[in-house]
Amino acid sequence: MTASLYFRAQTVPTLLMVILTPLFCGLGLWQLDRAEQKRQLAGALEQRRKLPAQRISPALAETDHIEYRRLQAHGRFLHHKTVLIENRKHQGKRGYHVITPLQLSGSGEILLINRGWVPQQIAEASTFSRPEGDLTIQGEARIPQPPALDLELRLERNQALPHWPFLTLENYTSWSGLELLPLILLQAPEPNSGFIRQWPSPPANDAMHIGYAIQWFAFALIGLLIWLRLSLHRPTGGTAA
Predict the structure, then answer these.
(1) Which of 4, 70, 167, 193 has its CA 20 to 30 A from that of 96?
(2) 209 shares its domain with 183
(3) In a domain, 109, yes or no
(4) With bands split at pLDDT 50, 70 and 90, how would you rate the model's confidence at 9?
């Protein structure tokens, strides 16, 4: 009959197992904790969206918890400083986001307003609405971010209705010469406005961390199985009668 395997741990594999298995498990737990943090952050941002709309002010705009807050602004559009953000799609159709600065009544501060999406032909023909006079605008606060690959824009002063691939406050300030409040307002939907305003909810972004956690736990399990396999030996002499 075949001789039974016996267990004898080897020094080097055991040392590696003792070091790597807790390390991999710790990294997996850390990724789960990161996923929970992202879920909590998404929940907190969603709660901000449910708060009553608050009147924008320079002091409020500088706070750390402004993003995703519902805000209200009163002022006048500066249509000659409008820019178009290109390659924005809605239901498979190509179009633009229309960005227009609002000069706030009283303080004179400048707040960028994303008025929403319009089809390509309307944007390029500049036939979207341009309301004049004092207006009250409601929307959600965002802080625009450049893409992962931050391409340098060619900014030409006084260019009429420029088309940009993305928006940052720094680029807009450099082009327009206007000093801005440090956010942009995504204008709330309005009937018959001519704009599509379907703004995304706060992303949870926890799936990536859960995937990483599964990978780290899998590495720990694989390492443990390899250690067990290396620790099992057959007796010398092969078989016994």
Answers:
(1) 70
(2) no
(3) yes
(4) confident
